[in-house]
Structures are given as C-alpha cells and as structure tokens.
Design brief:
- The chain contains three helices and eight strands; from the N terminus they run ααββββαββββ.
- It is an alpha+beta fold.
- The protein has a single domain, classed as Thiol Ester Dehydrase, Chain A (Roll).
- The strands form two sheets. It has a six-stranded antiparallel β-sheet. Strands 3-4 form a two-stranded antiparallel ribbon.
- The longest helix is centred in the middle third of the chain and has 17 residues.
C-alpha cells in the first residue's frame, strides 16, 4: 500500500468522525488534497432555507487541509489543528455534494499553513474558504 493509499484509508475510516460524516478522499498529491461529503438531508443547519450546516463545512475544510499537510510531510510526522478560520460566502445546498480543495501554503519545522476552497457545483463559485495552521510533531513510537 502506498503512502497516499494509507492516508486515504486513514482519513476515510481511521478517524471515526470523518467516517460518520461520510468524508471521501477524491485526490491526493504532494501539497494538495481534495475531499468530499455527499449531500443528504441530515446535514441541514438552517431548516428555513434549507442550507448546509456550517459545522459540516468547517469539518471538511479542516480534514482536507490536514490531509494536504500529511501528503507533504514525511511519514511519521503528525499534524494537529492549531487555528482554523472559515469565511462562509453563500449557503450550501443540502442536496448537493460538498467538495474541499486544499493546498499547502508553507511547511516549516513546527507548523504548516493551508488554504482551502469549499464548493459544490463550481469551484469558481465557492460557498466558503478556509485558512488553517497545523502543528507538526514527530510521531512517538509506543
């Protein structure tokens, strides 16, 4: 199994919350990652519109940003979220798939920064953008 295949498996099934939301990895390459959550009624946050829950959007942004970092650093390095800022630009449609496309802006010895665009039918019409910072440490062997 390749490093990217291991990362895909980890992000989809190794993190119970990601699995609960139905997150799927659609692409991974060094410095970039894309993930998605399929649309479904249970993800509604504003029943009056209805609109996608902001927590679903931010969770996907965080996971995709983390995956882009993991795909950039050497195996054995662990990333954990230090800061996540999400700008909500328009309501998300609950019946449509949600995509998060992340790219690493910088990786240092201790932190990495990412930018993520969240969209549904057209990346040129994002429903949100996110900036995140991740702490990097070397995994401790037990």
């Amino acid at each position: 199994m390749t490093h990217h295949e291991k990362l895909k498996d980890f992000m989809e099934t190794g993190i119970p919350f990601n699995e609960f939301l139905g997150m799927k990895v659609t692409s991974i390459e060094e410095g970039r990652a894309e993930m998605k959550i399929s649309g479904r009624p249970e993800l509604v946050g504003d029943p009056f519109r209805p609109a996608l829950h902001g927590g679903v959007i931010s969770a996907l942004a965080d996971a995709a940003g983390g995956l882009a970092v993991f795909a950039t650093v050497e195996p054995g390095r662990v990333a954990s979220t230090v800061d996540l800022r999400v700008d909500y630009l328009r309501p998300g449609n609950v019946d449509m798939d949600l995509f998060a496309q992340s790219k690493v802006l910088r990786v240092g010895n201790r932190v990495a920064a990412t930018h993520t665009v969240l969209y549904q039918s057209d990346i040129e019409k994002p429903i949100a953008t996110a900036s995140a910072v991740y702490n990097l440490v070397t995994e401790k062997k037990l």
